[in-house]
Task: structure prediction
Amino acid sequence: MNKEEVFSKLNEVFKDVFDDETISVNDNTTADDIEMWDSFEHINLISAIERKFDIKFNMKEIVGLHNVGEMANLILSKLA
Amino acid sequence: MNEYIKQLEYPIDANLLLTKKNKIKKFLQENYPAKIKKNIAVLGGSTTHDIVKILELFLLYNGIQADFYECEYNQYYEDIMYNNEALKAFKPDIIWLHTTYRNIENLPEITDTKETVAQKLEAEYNKYFSMWKKCFEDYKCTIIQNNFEQPFYRIMGNKDVSDYHGALNFISGLNMKFYDFAQNNVNFYINDINYIASTYGLKEWHDLSAWYLYKYCCKTDAVPYLSYSVSRIIKSIYGKNKKGFVLDLDNTLWGGIVGDDGVENLELGTETASAQAYTEFQSYLKKLSALGVILNINSKNDEKNAIAGLNHPDSILKPKDFISIKANWNPKSQNMEEIAQELSLGADSLVFVDDNPAEREIVRTQVKNACVPDVEQVEQYIKEIDKYGYFEVTALSKDDLAKNDMYKANIERVKLQQTFSNYDDYLISLNMEAVIKPFEAIYMQRIAQLTNKSNQFNLTTKRYSQSEIEQIAQDKNYITLYGKLSDKFGDNGVVSVIIGKIIKDELHIELWLMSCRVLKRDMEFSMMDELISQAKKLHISKIFGYYYPTAKNAMVKDFYKIQGYTKIKEDDTGNSVWEYKIPQNYKNKNKVIKVN
Result:
């Protein structure tokens, strides 16, 4: 899976979790850019991503994420 | 099954449920119109956010629309003890104290003496005890309190459970104190997270990253099971439990087909593995029936074969354990509707159990909102059914325990009625006796239960909690009456309730309901006679009755007219107000029931 494919799948997850068809995420997207993305929805987002890509994040990985780009890279490294 | 409803059935997929919660909520609001509204305060010692979101869905599924108050993280104690204005303004009907072992402040230390540990236990308990007391005083609400689950490690290993230094030992001691309180107080219910965590699997339940990252007491996937458990308690409090079973026979209550294999070859008893499984399932049903859950048969069989099967010497359930037995060749959906009618119940309050997927599908598609668990293998029947909590017990009233006898007596009455050509003669032959009196302490529970359960013969469909009922009973501005009816076939228990508010010389009837099990027995006339006699004593000259139409109470649309009231107002939605001037020489309307 390349980064583009990861982003396209990530986009589906975001649309689903935030119930918003207009969302389009990129490398620099952060929680500030999506209104509903608060600490509570963050939990659901992480679980949904884990399920979509069939991977598991550990605690330190989750804490270390700062934007969607870093998330995509982390996913790619897990899939490699 | 609808894809959204499927999300609310086992096995529950937490992530999917949370992701689709908005769509599911919308679907439920459209298809399961809420009949009651409640305010629920969730006061957590850990994160409650998603727990509440999912609880909301389960409650909607049960016809309860809830508004929620959530305390700030871990502020449950402060919110209760230090007069939180927001919580006061919220006026909770229910406070759920969602605390876990993480909230225990003083677990024993290895160096503690026995006395120190005993003091710690007392102090810990007192913290909760004072919160409960304060909740009852300030809010007169219902309390749901978590017990404590087991931690994920044991410092001393096996000894942790038996030695007073052990956390496990301490927790079970604390839990026992909670249970004592629960047994001695009404409007107080334990949410058994100890059981939920155990059945989920302690190792899985304690997801430590969920705790460190988000302060969730359990793995996020386990959240729905927690919410489900609380929803079971709430729907039971408000009378939304299922009422009984409609059961298939062949390969459901016994192994084999009685018509083909013959009674002697049915699998029942202890001889084979399947025989044991069918027998244990029967004994499970028998135990539920002792709690007042009613059992009925819906089987494709000749009736004589069905009865012969139930008379098998190893059959735990006998024909007399069933209220309605439909053994015929009609579609099962039709039988199901007929059984519901005979019992004056909604078909959606009966649980249909059949091993045959085709029969389940017919009932599921033909009977509106039918409850049809997927049972496939006999060794799974109990597990498949039990986990749903259809019959969650929150109050064990004497009435519930006697319910089966009452339904049976009703069928006897119908038989007797057929022998009289004049209906009044039949009523007189019943030798009915009623007790009609102001609310009394021993009946508060049953009265509250009735106000939440009765839908058909209910003029205003106003719901009350037990604590509200208790308050009204003491209030001089109210006339309250309960009616108990018995006859030669048995005691029906408390079947009718009236609450009227006194304003100067007027009485405004806020609630008038009667259980459908005593329809057409002239009980409503006896109630009116007694109400008028009480009103006269208080120098009331006028009575106002109110009728608010719902989907289910059309049968009492003309109730006040029949009672001789005059309609003085009616709005577009059919809400009407009725007036009655009490005449000097009021003549009792009831002629067939002996009262008090």
User: Anything to note?
Assistant: Chain B has a mean pLDDT of 91. The radius of gyration of chain B is 27 Å. Chain B has 25 helices and 17 strands.
